[in-house]
Amino acid sequence: MTFWLFKSEPDTWSWDDQVAKGAIGEEWHGVRNYQARNNMRAMRIGDRGFFYHSNVGKEIVGVVEVCRESQPDSTTDDPRWDCVYIRAVIGLKQPVTLETCKVQPGLEKMVLINNSRLSVQPVSAGEWQIICELGGIAP
DNA sequence: GCCAACGTTGGC
DNA sequence: GCCAACGTTGGC
User: Fold this and answer.
1) What's the rounded Cα separation, in Å, for the pair A40 and A2?
2) Residue A134, Cβ neighbours under 10 Å: how many?
3) Which of chain C's bases lie under 7 Å from a protein CB?
4) Any idea what DSSP says for residue A118?
């Protein structure tokens, strides 16, 4: 299993919106960046990811699961872009802020900190563990 | 609201 | 294939 992190501006699509979609999940459309797209193409059903609120909150708020592998993005005719579907699994008991990640030992190499503009990014198993602990949930 | 960092586009 | 111009992201 590989771990990921999905960024979303809560004003556009929030964790609550994601939770409201339930087990059906939602198409993670709108990504127009090759690196982010390639990350989605590497995802397999059952992979887990963090759900991060950018701009507003700047914190990891929940865990999602990939429930459909990458396929053409319904919001464009451009064949270059495709995306996965994700569904909410569980909310963090305690959101983990960007600020916390920056000072937390073991998270120095997080993509979130070093390449803040990448909207879909990989998370290492070690990082996953640490953030779940900070968030008060089982890994 | 500003601006730095970064990615993409398109002319040459 | 280079690079300047431009647009976007996202932290501050």
Assistant:
1) 11
2) 19
3) 8-12
4) -
Cα–Cα distance for residue pair A86/A35, rounded to 1 Å: 18
Which domain covers residue A84, as residue numbers? 3-135
Which residue positions in chain A have pLDDT lower than 70? none
CA–CA distance, A94 with A106 (Å, rounded to integer): 19
The reported pLDDT for the residue numbered A1 is 85
Q: How many domains does chain A have?
A: 1
The helix (H) or strand (E) run that includes residue A37 is helix A34-41
Distance A59 CA to B12 C1' (A): 45
DSSP state of A51: E
Whole-prediction pTM = 0.94
- Gap from A95 CA to C2 C1', in Å? 45
